[in-house]
Amino acid sequence: MKTYNDLYLSARTQLKQCGIESCNLEARLLVAQAAGKTPEQLLRDLNLYSSPAVEEKVTDSLARRMRGEPVAYITGTWEFYGLPLTVTPDVLIPRMDTELLVTTARELFMGRKMDARILDLCCGSGCIACALARVFPASKLVAVDISASALAVCRKNLAEYGFSSRCITRQADATASPPLGMGSFDMIVSNPPYIPSGEILTLDSSVRDYEPIWALDGGEDGLRFYKSILKYWKSLLKPGGYLLFEVGEGQADEVREMILAAGFASADTRKDTLNVDRVVFGRTYLE
User: Fold this and answer.
1) Phi and psi for 107 in degrees, rounded to 5?
2) In 181-265, at which residue ranges do the beta strands (DSSP E only) sit?
3) Quick check: pTM over 0.90?
């Protein structure tokens, strides 16, 4: 009989041999999930004996990971802005870069009213909506996505943290006119698909082969969703309202110019941890 520590060390070794840099973290997550424990509980119980059933689950999970499947889809959960969230192959895996959208929103609303009405456009798993609901406890949110299956994941995450009473979901296409009755918003945030179509096949296989392509493909130039959102959804912003975009590397200047050309009073950028302009935001004119 093996201890949990034996399973962890074996998993770490196999992942390392496959060239997986985050082998320590991933081994811990996979063994914890197989054991039905949190990573913290696994650390506490490392010297306890596991069971053949847990050992078999670890073996199956490792086989899936070494075939290229992302660990988030194997465990069914991933953390974003300190919140463990449900993740399925119907949604993109939340990235740390996207946390900058939440941080920027918090910065922009610092010292202003906290009972804002916020729209999360192309919401996917609802990671941004959940984080904003936590940061702004008096806010009202609407989370929009074209995918019914993604919205189901979003609703599950909102319910998990008790945000359902303040956040509703709507199925809609970000590249078309908004549904009637959406109302107006103090802020619109969006992490839309922004990978140029021709670059999809060059993505890492763990992304290309497992994550939903429709949530990655931003059209020929990668800018299709930014153009559409500015065309169709800008009108939902209140005077003095903010529009925040996550952008791909090298897209910030062009998106900033698009925001100014759309009639916003100002536009600016924020850099991620790698010093890449990752968030572009604009503010509408005050009346």
Assistant:
1) -65, -45
2) 185-190, 237-246
3) yes
